[in-house]
Amino acid sequence: MDNTGGQAQSYLITLTVTNELIAATAASGAFWDVAAYSCRKSGERDRYVQKRAEIDEAAIGAPPTSAICLWCRQRSGPYSLPDDLLLLVLARLRCVRTAARASVLSRRWRGLWTRLPALLFRDVAFRSVEPALAHAVSSASTDGVFLVDIQLPKREWALRASAPCVSVASLLRAAARLSPEKLVLCLPWGAAAMFEEVELPSFQRATSISLTSWSPINLRAPSAGESLPALTTLVLSGCTADGLAALVARCLRLRTLRFSRPGSSCNARIPLDITVRSSSLRELVIEETQAYVNRIDVATPMLEHLTVSALADFRLRVSVLAPMAASVTWRCRYYKDIWLQDDDDRTRSAYWTLDMVSLLSAPPAAAERRRPPVLRLDAVKNNFRASASWTQDVRQVEQHLWMEVAADLSVLDLELHLTTLGHVYGAVVFFLLKIHRIATAVHRLKLRVAKLDPETIPTEEEECGECCNCAPTNNWRSEVVTLTELTEVEIDGFEGDDHEFDVLKHLLKCAPMLKRMTLKQSHKVAPSDAKVHDFFKAHPFVECYYISSSDTTPMAC
């Protein structure tokens, strides 16, 4: 019984493996192609045709695996396949585990997987990966290893407590012994110990390294005197930012750096300092920060593409030196309230909070004129009274415009996205417009007004009364903000109340070069068409357009 059971199990394994071989080779006839190659090489094409006919006849009515099984039994003579062609078959399986199990078909297949140029680990047990890498190192020359791709499976919650975590440092050292040209390591949540100290080995031949860990790890640069001389692409996800600067300094030929989901070395509440200094870097991407960023320091004279998307601490400091960066995508969302107040008169624009600062600059397409960079500021009305320690420093907004990039930040398109919650907004608009770097650079102003924001609490419209802290005063109406470069204004969400017409009048007073004004009607409240027409008629020197919520084309007034 035991022997019969063992034979049945062996048959099942053989059947499974041969089915996987068929899936990998039958689609393109690769198995018979390599078999034909073997026979043609030996000058016995007729024997090959006869042999294939015999095998096909013997396999009639049998499972499709029979043909390959019968062929694999021909382990000697002119019908045996060269190792190089067997490796082609194994490579199509795209899994080290399946390739290793192919040894049940023939002794010729045993250990052959260690000579594969690409070692892909899929659904391999945690404890088996490192021994498998060690076996590959001891069994074959590592000169031909192009790719080591390790993607560990997710572990059930019940197993995480009993099974030990994988040692990322040990796993990387085992992979480094193979000296691959490309390394991919993906660790699911719970696979690695939280904040494990990991020193990245010196991969001498690696041109690309991608390391993803859903449990944060402290990645460090190689030990003193070692570097990554051939590395051009580095992708890090889930690693702390503490060792990033030292690691980049060891990559002398680095061209692309993608750094996502960075965290603090011990606590997600501790703000991050992200520093990148490289003389060879061409593309930098920092996104999905898990902790709040306190400082961003970038010095990359050859950088061409810069992308930053981060949660910003209210004390954020920015320093960017990238004079060749023509493509810039910058997005900083503040996690604490940045109070937009005026130190001289806190009744003006008081108690609005800055939510996000974005800057977008892209090089022009072929036969297209260069478009100015777009600066977007998101602000939300907040009724809570602020203390003096929360007073907004204008530099928190202005510092984003001091970046040294290829784009000319002295010419801007400004977008203001305001969530008013039912309050008036004229004071905050002119508070932002009077910032020196904005007032001297803005050519086009787009104002998007929304009373409610589904992501903002409270979600109900508030009442703006006489005692409200944003109640209209004469201060912003009487103060002239010089906007000599402003030529176009667009307001989306216009309702036509007296306060909004005051905003339009003041814009016309502050912008002597204004040529075009477009008003898009709010979906909730429709302003009086006659009132809008009379206003535009009183200013004939401006090209005016009014778009109602039901119109698809603008109406000239």
Topology (SSEs and partners):
Layout: H1 2-25, H2 30-41, H3 45-58, H4 65-72, H5 83-91, H6 96-101, E1 118-122, H7 126-139, E2 147-151, H8 157-162, H9 168-176, E3 182-187, E4 196-199, E5 208-220, E6 233-239, H10 244-249, E7 256-260, E8 272-277, E9 283-287, E10 293-299, E11 305-322, E12 327-334, E13 352-361, E14 374-381, H11 395-398, E15 404-405, E16 412-419, H12 426-433, H13 436-439, E17 442-450, H14 475-478, E18 488-494, H15 498-510, E19 516-521, H16 529-537, E20 543-547, E21 555-556
Task: Summarize the structure in words.
With 557 residues, the protein is an alpha/beta fold. Among the domains are: 2-86, no CATH class; 117-325. The chain has 16 helices and 21 strands. It has a 21-stranded mixed β-sheet that branches. The longest helix has 24 residues, at 2-25. The protein is elongated and about 95 Å long. The N and C termini lie far apart (95 Å). Mean pLDDT is 76; it is low at 7-15, 24-45, 54-79, 342-350, 385-391 and 454-460.
Question: Briefly, what is this?
Answer:
This protein is α/β, with parallel strands linked by helices. It has helices at 2-25, 30-41, 45-58, 65-72, 83-91, 96-101, 126-139, 157-162, 168-176, 244-249, 395-398, 426-433, 436-439, 475-478, 498-510, 529-537; strands at residues 118-122, 147-151, 182-187, 196-199, 208-220, 233-239, 256-260, 272-277, 283-287, 293-299, 305-322, 327-334, 352-361, 374-381, 404-405, 412-419, 442-450, 488-494, 516-521, 543-547, 555-556.
